[in-house]
Amino acid sequence: MDAADDEDGRVPAPRFGGAALEIRSLSGRPGIRAAGEINVITRSSWEQALKKVASTHGDVSHVELSGLMSIDVGGAAVLAVTAQRLTTGRIVVHRPPPELTRILDLFWPDLAAIEVAER
User: Which residues, in sequence order, are bridge partners of residue 84?
Assistant: First the structure.
């Protein structure tokens, strides 16, 4: 991630109004794990983490979201734009909250650079 990361790859977002997001590097495969909430308060941390994923992207990057309680349309847009900018391969999203799948289907129905692996 960057110099502010913890030794284990965790990037905590600041808490404000109860919103928090924690992002860690995945062990054993390229990508990240996000837990908490992605919204206007935490979106910049989410965007920074996805930029790092894109900068180290090979053929497949993984985004594990089983610990994510919610994601807003802006957070989904950041994911979609990141995937659209990849020159090769795809992002596999594991266990996203239901609203992410609905948002992607609604606004980016033909985006082949994102594969959603359901629960």
Answer: none
Q: Are strands 31-38 and 21-25 parallel, antiparallel or unpaired?
A: antiparallel
Helix (H) or strand (E) holding 80: helix 73-85
pLDDT tens figures, 44-88: 999 999 999 999 888 999 999 999 999 999 999 999 999 999 999
Using DSSP's 3-state secondary structure scheme, residue 116 falls into strand
The rounded distance, in Å, linking the Cα atoms of 95 and 78 is 18
Evaluate whether 21 touches 38 at the Cβ level (below 8 Å).
yes
Of the candidates 88, 102, 98, 95, the residue with the CA atom closest to the CA atom of residue 116: 95
Q: Please check whether residue 86 is in contact with residue 54, taking contact to mean a CB–CB distance below 8 angstroms.
A: yes
Asked if 86 and 57 count as a contact pair (C-beta separation under 8 A), the reply is yes
